[in-house]
From TrEMBL:
Residues 30-174 form the NTR domain. It is found in: Secreted. PROSITE patterns: NTR. It comes from the Eukaryota. This is Complement C3-like. Residues 1-22 form the signal peptide. It comes from Clupea harengus. The gene is LOC116219175. Pfam families: NTR.
Length: 177
């Protein structure tokens, strides 16, 4: 990732110095910590419940393109492969920058070229210089999305099937339940 404007905006955002607001409370603060990547099998019910609660603003299937670390932030360049729940942003097929604390690197365990399910709330979406950026925080759900090939293996089969079914269900939106 080059040190371009977008990147600088991200950095400023996470250092909480990017503020045009008179009200100090409105300043953007980078979350102190984040949830670890979800491991183990997650049921369809659990996925749907999390995706469909009102506070969940976005549900994306993403691919990690590259990552850049600095002293205070890690920035992940993600391709949004599929928007399963749309919030204020509609990034289908586009790239978005996701930001976290360097201390989250091991917990998030995101690998270049791999695909993940990411769900989060509105607080973790920040608009800076006309572009949306995403922050990993304690509410962010991150889960590995196995490849089609992995989905045929015993290790990943259930996880893969649950995610594929979840994607299909979300195509019809969140049912009132
Ligand atoms: C993000 O990845 C895409 C696809 O590889 C690339 O075209 C784009 O330049 C990258 N963006 C940044 C900021 O590195």
């Amino acid at each position: 990732m080059r040190l371009d404007l977008q990147w600088l905006a991200c950095l400023a955002l996470c250092l909480a110095v990017f503020s045009t607001h008179a009200n100090a409370d409105a300043r953007i603060k980078c979350p102190e910590t984040c949830s670890p990547q979800k491991t183990g099998v997650r049921t369809l019910a659990e996925l749907s419940k999390t995706a469909c609660i009102k506070s969940t603003e976005f549900v994306f299937e993403v691919q990690v393109e590259n990552a850049e670390s600095s002293l205070h932030t890690d920035a992940y360049n993600m391709t949004i492969l599929e928007v399963l729940k749309n919030g204020m942003d509609s990034p289908q097929g586009e790239n978005r920058v996701f930001i976290s604390r360097p201390s989250c690197k091991q917990k998030l365990d995101l690998k270049t070229g791999k695909t993940y399910l990411i769900m989060g709330n509105g607080n973790s979406i920040k608009k800076v210089a006309g572009r949306y950026h995403y922050l990993f925080d304690e509410q962010t759900w991150v889960q590995y999305w196995p490849t089609d090939t992995e989905g045929a293996t015993k290790q990943f089969q259930t996880q893969y099937n649950n995610l594929e079914q979840f994607r299909n269900d979300m195509f019809y939106g969140c049912k009132s339940r």
